Amino acid sequence: MPLSVLIVDDHDGFRSRAKRALELDGFDVIAEAADIAHGVAACRKHQPDVVLLDVHLPDGCGMDCAAQFAEAAPSARVVLISTYDEIDMASAAQQDGVVGFLPKAELSGHELLARLDAYGARQA
Amino acid sequence: MRPYAGNTPVTTSQTAPDDPDFALTKAVLHAALDCVFVIDDAGTVIDLNPAAEVTFGYTAEEAIGREMAELIVPEALREQHRQGLERYLATGTARVLGRRIQIPAIRADGEERLVELAITRAGALGNELFVGYLRDVTDQLAAERELIESRTRIVEASDASRRRLERDLHDGAQQQLVGLALTLRLARDRVESDPAAALELLDEAAADLKAATAELRDLARGIHPAVLTEGGLRPALRSLATRSTVVVDLQLGELPEERLSSAVESTAYFAVAEALTNVARYASASRASVTLSCTGGGAHRRLHVVVQDDGVGGADPAAGSGLRGLADRVGALGGTLTLTSPSGDGTMLLADLPCTSS
Fold this sequence. Notes:
The complex is a heterodimer. Chain A is an alpha/beta fold. Helix content of chain A is 44%, strand content 26%. Chain A is globular. The two termini of chain A are 22 Å apart. Residues 1-15 of chain B have low confidence and may be disordered. Chain A binds chain B through residues 11, 13-14, 17-18, 20-21, 24, 56, 83, 104-108, and chain B through 170-171, 174-179, 181-183, 185-186.
């Protein structure tokens, strides 16, 4: 079973390219959303394995609302994404449900799996 | 000034009206632009000069013999003023004597003004007399406040434009470059396994790069057009006119051939850019004219920038931040910005700038 992914990002161009890249690498992108409100709703509806959550969204900061996604889909693992790579991972890791951070330009199935595995190893 | 003829006559042998020294003193105070009030130890006006009459709206006949506090001190401060005088007479302790202070004062018509006041003792005349020198500084203070406010607006406008720039970069070129990175990564992974797909991805990447380049070029032109830096106002304005969505009649015949200072050039350029943007957005105009000319010479040379359209008029200079920012920018160079926009009769923006060559 491929891992299912929800992409929450307000740039259409990025979402379509991220979806193509992940699907070619064997992920199943089951939903997309352009803001937090629609993202949380889609998360509740689709119960994805992974949420790719942009840090800068029109209706708030992805880092601050990760807990809403964790609450909407308790088994989902949230990976924060951003155009910038200045995210303080120590504070990101303190957010409920956040398992890692990935700069947008480095996104690929391989990099995403590496973040999920690193989290799994920390938890083990 | 008149011989003292108020409640406390102080005319002495030293101050006889026919004394030449007295006549000189009188002439000096008469000619002063600052207001001069003379009061006695009861706070009663015993004389004032013409400047005081004009500034406060009382004739000497109306003012002499009345308590000064009642005439020009605002009601809320009167008691304090009276107590100050009493305290000084009783103890010799003065808070305001011999210093310049700023306080509100009222005119005969009730209008409150801010004045700079200095009170000194003139006890040499034998009686305890006080002289108040006042200058109306209301307009000066208002101008200083406006200067501080406009400087603040310039700093805020600069901050806002940096934020806008960051956002434009983030939402535009940066997203295109992120997409490009993802596409290139995919292409690399497929070079051997699926060369045809890799080729297609590379074509897409080239298109993304072209779009990002165009985006960056537009952004750079908005920050400071290269054509203005390199070629000056003529080619920069021609480029603006070409890109405008309304027909622009450019009149540059009276613009000097030599380059002007970069501050004047860029302010004139952004005045035209802002005006043409507004014409395109709001004026419903079919044509606009842009005329630049210079008058005067040397230190008095001025550049006049006029943008006129045949649209609906009724533009409000206070409505947007664009025109206010432009007015601050023009004001910072010592120029003036005038907007004339009667409803139904087109809009004219005139920027008048002191102008030096580069």
